[in-house]
Amino acid sequence: MTYPELYILRHGETTWNAENRMQGWLNSPLTLKGEADAARQGAILRGRQLDGFAYLCSPSGRTVQTAGIACAQIAEAVHTDIRLREIGVGDWAGRLRDELPQGTGNDPYMAQYEMAPNGEGIAVLSARCLAFLTDLSGPAVLITHGITSRVIREIVVGPDALSNPSIHGGQGCVYHLKGGVQNLLT
C-alpha cells in the first residue's frame, strides 16, 4: 500500500525517560533537554515545505507539550488522535526498566514490551497504527512516541526503517517518509 508523505517526531526527553522508566500511557513532563529537543524539531520542520500538511498528535501530555514547542510557528492547529499514543505497558507503567525482567532474542528492548503483564503488545499496536495510516487522507506531521514511531515507520517503509542505529530514539530529530523511503533529519 502507498501512504502519504509523513514527518514523524518523537516527543522530547521526559523526566521518566531520563530515569529509564516505562511510561506507556502514563505521562511525565519534558525535561529542559526535552524542550530543546522539541525546539530542534521545530527548526527542522521550518526548513521544509509543509503546505497542505495535517498536524496530528498523540493525546499524551508529553507529545502535546512537544507539539506546542515544535509546531507553534508553523501549524494553524494540531489535532490529537488516540491511535498515536504509545504502546500500553500495563502493570509495568511507571516502573524502572532495570527492575523489570530483561527481554531476550534479537531485540531484548522490544521483547520487554511483549512481556509486560496486561500490556498492549506489538501486534495490537501494529493494528492500531495500520488503522491510523489507512485513514490518512493526505500528507501529515505526526507527533508521537518511540515505539509507535518505530511501528509506523516499519509499516510504511518496511524493515529497512529500523536499520538506523537510533531506532529506539528519535528525540530531537525528525523522520521523513516519502515514496517508501525514510530519511532521518537532524
Automatic annotation (TrEMBL):
Provide the residue positions that the database annotates as binding substrate.
10-17, 62
Concerning PROSITE patterns, the annotation shows:
PG_MUTASE
- From the record, give the transmembrane residue ranges: none
Q: What does the entry list under GO cellular component?
A: cytoplasm
Active site, renumbered: 11 (tele-phosphohistidine intermediate), 86 (proton donor/acceptor)
**Gene Ontology molecular function: any one:** phosphatase activity
| Record protein name field | Putative phosphoglycerate mutase family protein
Which InterPro entries does UniProt cross-reference here? His_Pase_superF_clade-1 (IPR013078), His_PPase_superfam (IPR029033), PG/BPGM_mutase_AS (IPR001345), PGM_Phosphatase (IPR050275)
Pfam families per the record? Answer: His_Phos_1
